[in-house]
Write a structure and sequence with these properties.
The protein is α+β, with helices and mostly antiparallel strands. The chain is built from 8 helices and 4 strands, in the order αβαβαααβαααβ. It has helices at about 5-15, 55-65, 85-95, 105-110, 115-125, 145, 155-160, 165-180, and strands at about 40-45, 65-75, 125-140, 190-200. β1, α2 and β2 form a beta-alpha-beta unit. The protein is elongated.
């Protein structure tokens, strides 16, 4: 989980980049939103759902703040296969270090698949739930362009790589370089897949309670 200082740094950076006066950025707990019930037309979680300690509590909160008939949606990376940049890395890392399979994001985040996502939204009381893939082409100029992000020490894979002895890091790099097939110009083409789930909120008095002192957001709110 991110520390408070890093979260505040991300929010500060986002505030500097977002110039639209209609946007408002706040730091809060996704499992205990401060907004009043049934006040959002659309509530969306972007690449967050699998990181919270209680995804069911977060989904229920998203439903609570959404008006009946409004949309609740989320998207997460397909760590098991479709997020190819990471999948190639973890396949090699676990092959060379079998005891480290527990840190593979596919193992850590079983939620990030169509059936678990659909069941999560149905448990939250949503109807007309659907899941679809979002595929984004990711083309790297060469192997170094692919490898460089893993050296940043931020995120699960870079943090894991930084924890390894230098010789082990080099072996992972060498095996990856030998396996990744480049085109004639040296570029490496991959796909980044996210699973997106959406559902429709229905009237539910047990969920649509009002929090004392809650903030009233704009008619359209997006949770990231």
């Amino acid at each position: 989980m991110l520390g408070v200082d890093r979260i505040e740094a991300y929010v500060s950076e986002a505030r500097n980049r977002v110039r639209d006066s209609r946007a408002r950025l706040e730091v809060g707990d996704a499992c205990t939103l401060t907004w009043s019930s049934a006040t959002c037309d659309v509530t969306v979680s972007g690449l967050v759902l699998n990181f919270v300690p209680d995804s069911d509590a977060m989904a229920r909160e998203m439903v609570r703040v959404t008006r009946p008939g409004g949309k609740v949606a989320a998207y997460v990376w397909d760590y098991a296969g479709g997020m190819q940049m990471l999948r190639h890395f973890w396949d090699v890392a676990v092959e060379l270090n079998p005891g480290d399979s527990r840190v593979d994001q596919a193992e850590r985040f079983p939620l990030c698949q169509p059936d678990p996502l659909e069941q999560l939204f149905r448990r939250a009381g949503l109807i007309s739930v659907s899941v679809r893939a979002i595929d984004v082409p990711t083309v790297f100029r060469d192997f170094e362009d692919y490898w460089r992000p893993f050296l940043g020490k931020q995120g699960a894979a870079p943090t894991y790589l930084a924890s390894l002895p230098g010789g082990t890091r080099d072996r992972i790099r060498d095996v990856l370089k030998a396996r990744l097939v480049a085109t004639a110009d040296g570029s490496i083409a991959m796909t980044a897949r996210a699973w997106a789930v959406q559902g429709t909120a229905t009237p539910n008095p047990s969920l649509h309670r009002t929090r004392s002192g809650g903030l009233r957001p704009p008619s359209r709110a997006t949770g990231r």
